[in-house]
Amino acid sequence: MAEEEVVIEVDAVQAVYGDDCLVLQSYPPHIQIHIKPRTAEISSQQFVEAVIGIRAGPQYPEEAPDINIAESKGLDEQRKNHLITGIQDKACELSSCLMLVALCEEAVEMLSSMNHPEGNCPLCLYPLVEEDAGRDSLPFMKLMSCFHCFHCECIIRWWNWLQSEKEVIPTNLSGPSVRGSRSMLNQRSVHAAAEESTGSCPVCRKVFHAKDIEHVLDLVGAHSQLSSGDAKLNEDENLTELDSEKFRREKFEAILKLQQENSGLIEPRKNEVLLPGMFLPPPIPETTTVSVNETTDPQNTESNVRAGANSSGSSNRPRTSEHRNSGMRKHRGRNPRKQVKQWTKKETGNAD
Amino acid sequence: MTSSSAPSRKALSKIACNRLQKELVEWQVNPPSGFKHKVTDNLQRWVIEVNGAPGTLYANETYQLQVDFPEHYPMEAPQVIFLPPAPLHPHIYSNGHICLDILYDSWSPAMTVSSVCISILSMLSSSPVKQRPADNDRYVKNCKNGRSPKETRWWFHDDKV
Ligand SMILES: [Zn+2]
Ligand SMILES: [Zn+2]
Description:
The structure holds two protein chains of two kinds. By secondary structure, chain A is of the alpha+beta class. Chain A contains ten helices and eight strands. Chain A is elongated. By secondary structure, chain B is an alpha+beta fold. Chain B has a single domain, classed as Ubiquitin Conjugating Enzyme (Roll). Chains A and B meet through helix 4 of A and helix 1, helix 2 and helix 3 of B. The site of one zinc ion has 7 residues of chain A, from strand 6.
């Protein structure tokens, strides 16, 4: 097939995928496509994504292009292999036709069918999605920054724990900590303290913010006692319905809010996906902000920088050291290797 | 003193129980290599046998780890110590306390007994010399009243054992 035809095809791919398409070379074509599941209208309901590399040789399209996954989130090795094999099969099937757009579409289709978290909740070790359709699954969520998934209930419990630890620390500085005697915060103060607080992903330690879990905070709060931390979520059959209703309502409210701010009717910006609970600017709780800052250990700055350079996968490695005498200041940072790099893309959209 | 060193603790929460039972099952199906869980009916205290890895200073030696779980495990880290005699190691005190960040400040609830065991074994394996920490005597004396290592103010920094 003539070179111009192939080059025209590459232009077509670029026209279809816009910014999600990166042309590394137009002939023989070498492109990278950033794909997301078709079903993921709401970002918080998107559990996987990938950057697929398609590299053709001079014999293209008689010869199928090489397929690889340059980057991915939420996909384990098995599902990555499945994705690659699926696209390769499609390529063989379409042999000698111009197939770049078709391959991208196939990739999106496959990814859409994989749009759910895999494996166990890292906190309770029970499956996130019950294989057995007869059993009710607890609602789950993902952290927006790293796509690690947890049961809503479980991540909220971790969040509450972190916040209650921060509260306890100042009184502890003078003596040995009395662990286990702290009381969990009630939900109201969780909401108040949550606005400016951060937590860290239990799996990769990436920092996340209150707004990243705000939408599930309400969901879980309605169904269990946050204060005891022990109540297992009831097997409430209406839960998933409530869930989607909640997303719908919050999305609507977010739009409404935007409209008010812009004093008039507007449409959601074209390239922006509305995230439930993420557009509403939080009220500023001054008192909590201060207390949180106080507990921020300046010692952390150095290790933050170091951690930022590391890849996220290795951040749970243990370290050892000498014990210093007790006059020494304890390294108070709950997570000494907090990542500086945070997910901020969406939240800045509204502020400007 | 080691077995009495655990402070009197509250019973496990329901969530801690569920999680530990799950870990126990997983351990039985897929135990970390080099470790043996000594079965008891006490879910809140595990005693685990550690075999020094072949080719390291601790090859052919066997030690025992005692793991005590707090009420709010896994939000709170378990207390992990070596029962006597503790291995001679630059980060292990003669009273069995282990200076390893993941047991204290760097604990994450996504870690498990199994992953902690693996970290401890790798800490053992990477030691180039069999000796006690420099401040061993002073530290152990300070712990005389059966203090938990979780109450120690540890200081962590990056170093190669
Ligand atoms: Zn869970
Ligand atoms: Zn993560």
